[in-house]
Amino acid sequence: MAERIGSVTSDVSRSDFLRACRGEATDRVPVWFMRQAGRSLPEYRAVREGVAMLDSCFRTDLVVEITMQPVRRYGVDAAIFFSDIVVPLKAIGVDLDIVPGTGPVVAEPFRDRAQLDALRGLEPDDVAPITAAASALVGELGDTPLIGFAGAPFTLASYLVEGGPSRDHRRTKQLMRSDPDLWHELAGRLARIAGDFLRLQVEAGASAVQLFDSWAGTLSLADYQELVAPHSRAVLEAVADLDVPRIHFGVGTGELLGAMGDVGADVVGVDWRVPLDDAVQRIGPDRSVQGNLDPTTLFAPADVVERQAARVIEAGRAARGHVFNLGHGVLPETDPDALARLVDFVHGYERD
Ligand code: CP3
Asked: Which of the four CATH numbers 3.20.20.210, 3.50.50.60, 1.10.10.60, 3.10.580.10 does domain 12-348 have?
């Protein structure tokens, strides 16, 4: 990595975040937050005014500015690239939008084989403004690593098949079980798109990747292993030669943690339901963990937040490496000052 991009990168490589991902000792527990850039920040709401979410993701200047906002404000140990899991689908021409307060909505939900043709491969030109933003960010960030990300095949497929957010993922599971061949073709195409998207971000300078399988927790372990794991493995395999840590995260995935580690992750993201020391038992000793303060804790008094955060840090010591995070994204109503205090608390925490 250092040879490829030069001396700046070697400082990034020694960052607490990358060290914890690799299971190396750190002086402080590194911390960043999923959705650290977003509606909780007044400066985010200001720059997004009058610009649709997906339009903002294709504007290099806005991607750079929004990605930097939480780094400037909080001094977090990593930046996460401002984008969305549906951006590569939009980039290849899938007709979809992100509706405020709802999430991704697809104009023509995926129903049959004829629609596979619309899911062509991702070409670098499709995402040129995005990779330009990643390159610019690496310069602005200096020693702070940039995390690239993609949506995992199951979570992406669930938006395509359901047409939007879903509570029970009924149609997606129906497709998996009634036409497994078509399911595997769909998931295989999504895996290639997600893998290519991650690769392009790393080639532009991202020094870690996170694969979001946010809704995988709706699946039984048996269904996950048979119908989903091979495709998520293919995504992580697509960046295996690039020597960047691979983080794999989902919500409500307590029963899947071992399997999610086994598809090629260096770090497993854990939501707030499973204490990190229990999670380590399920994942095994050869991976780091990321998480896992309940995002709603930030609405409690400061001393309660600190007690809960200390519990997370102590439980995280069971792992070979721990990256502090919330158990899911920052809620839009969160007070940014509460997050600032939390970063300071994690950084100042004395481990003996
Ligand atoms: O700071 C970061 O974490 C980086 C930015 C990021 C966004 N989306 C920006 C965003 C990331 C990593 C994502 C990933 C994403 N998008 C996931 C996986 C992570 C997770 O939350 O589990 C999923 C499932 C999506 C799909 C999606 N996009 C949802 C459910 C929503 C919320 C809809 C809403 O308005 O409540 C979005 C929109 C979205 N993505 C916003 C942001 C900042 C809010 C849009 C806005 O500000 O108008």
From this structure: 3.20.20.210
